[in-house]
Design goal:
about 400 residues, mainly alpha
Length: about 400
Amino acid sequence: MTNSKRPAGGLTAIRRFYFYIVAFVSLVAGLAALDKLLEALDTAWLGGAALFDVGGNAFTREVLAASGGVLLVAAPIFLLHWRFIQQRQDDPDERHSGLRKLFLYLASAVAIGYVLFRAYDLLYGVAVLAFGQPLVSSKIWPDGWLYNLLMLAAAWSLEAYLHHVVVADGDYGRERDNTGVWRRLFHVTAGLVGLGLILFGAAGILETAWRTATGGIDNLVTGWWRPEAWAHGVALLLIGAVLARINWRRWRVITVENADEARAALRRFYLYVAVATGAIAALAPAASILREALLIVFGSGAGDAAELLRKIATPVSFVPVGAVIWLWHRRFLQREAEEYGESEEGAAVRRLYYYVVAATGLTLLWFGAVNIVGAALDWLLRNGVQSGVGGLWAEPLATGLSLLTVGAPV
């Protein structure tokens, strides 16, 4: 009896692997072909033919034929394999298999990738016009906007459908065995990507505002009052906020309904990484600002106030954003730890987090102490010569004190 069942199980695994891998490859190929096809059609229809005039009209036909051919081949292959897969969903083992979850979340990740890129191009194009770029320099007018909008809608619809399929499987948030790992990895990746976009988008806006406010006449030379800088930050912030919000709400609903999810190792891993990201984004720039201030105190800093303001523009922009991310995620981490406790795996993640943070703090203390001792020896060996303004000891001493200031609390 046992030997007769082994071949069936092996054949089932091979069959699943074949259908899911073919469905995934054909889906990705179809999306890529649709992207190129929409871009070519948009350029041809809306008058931006200059992109294709380099090779003549034949090049336009080649692009349309190649992308259209791939789409016409990939779409039926995907639909046939996906139909066969869906027809077997009466079998619980099939519906709850790990390979199915892996396919669904990988396909969702690809769809979200297209959403992010097309949404960025569209939002950037709109924002840069809103901030004063001439219409003749726009990359989304007269062509570009329709292509980005249609591809954004297609990719968003695909992700929504895949999420519907995941929920319809009936085990969403309560997957058995290790099948939930794929969903949690998806949440972790989406959350961290969204967090990174928010961090760099908000910091970019603040940096542009800082340089604009403090640059004065230098803005005409350095170009910091430029639409592109504002538009880049706004686009990153908006798409990051939407991605992080949707991902957070979906995951948060599961943790409220299932305490085991709130104690899961990957859930705690995400929160600890988010806390660490915010702390690094706040403390590292703060150390840089402190170093510049100490250099001024030691007489070896920026030549004037304008130069100082330019030097600290980037770190100043990251400190408040990092602090908000740090405190917000730390609050939720503490709340979930108190409310749900922690699993054995979650405890291991917590220990790893604290050991890594402690090692980082000790490393900063080490290099800070080395710089301070080196500066002191330099001053003593030269018997105090040039120990006043602009001494060689100033930069290592400022660096060492700033590292100690950050490393000691950590």
